[in-house]
Amino acid sequence: MTGAPAGRIARAARPAARILLVDRAGQVLLFRFTPGDDRPPFWCTPGGAVDPGESYAEAARRELFEETGIRADPGPEVAQRHVEFLTIERVEVTADERWFRVDVEANEVDPAGHTELERRVMTEWRWFRRDEIAQWPETIYPDDLLAMLEATDHDA
């Protein structure tokens, strides 16, 4: 017998590139997602699914430009994670996330490249100081963002 256990829906595989986007003051960019259903808003780093035939680094470069208007080389992977979650489109996925850190001088965001879905659910963004992250009243993903930033600081 193959597939998911009885009564359990199989999760879709989702390769994804995520970006730790850090400005010269050490702040990290997060987008606020408002799913619009029974789920509360949450904050997350830029990034998204890898398109067919695309490498993780290519996806990171594309997602960075589409979501922020910033053209930059994502550099090497700094972390890899496997996480399960429900997408905004309500699809259960198991994501193979590859993380990249991009340091930038300016902290301006141009949302011109946002998709229709992103325009609907990512209406806010801000640069977070590290001391704000642990005490923020809404959920921030990944939950160990501060540790990831600290682990990559020496490479910046």
* Biggest sheet character: 4 strands, mixed
Radius of gyration: 16 Å
Described by the principal axes of the CA atoms, the overall outline is globular
**Order of H and E elements:** EEEEHEEHEHEH
> Approximately how much beta-strand content do the residues carry?
25-35%
CATH fold annotation: Nucleoside Triphosphate Pyrophosphohydrolase
Q: In total, how many beta strands?
A: 8
Mean pLDDT: 88
Provide a count of the helices.
4
Give the uncertain stretches in residue-range form. none
Annotated CATH architecture: Alpha-Beta Complex
Structural class of the helices, strands and pairings?
alpha/beta
The CATH superfamily turns out to be Nucleoside Triphosphate Pyrophosphohydrolase
Q: What order do the strands of the largest sheet run in, or round the barrel if closed? A: 4-1-6-5
Distance between the terminal alpha carbons, to the nearest Å? 49 Å
What do you see in this structure?
The chain is of the alpha/beta class and 156 residues long. It has a single domain, classed as Nucleoside Triphosphate Pyrophosphohydrolase, CATH 3.90.79.10. The chain contains 4 helices and 8 strands; from the N terminus they run E-E-E-E-H-E-E-H-E-H-E-H. It has helices spanning 56-68, 116-121, 130-133, 145-153; strands spanning 12-22, 28-33, 42-44, 47-49, 77-86, 92-103, 124-128, 139-141. The strands form 2 sheets. The chain has a 4-stranded mixed beta sheet. Strand 5 and strand 6 (92-103) form a beta hairpin. It is globular. The model has no long low-confidence stretch (mean pLDDT 88).
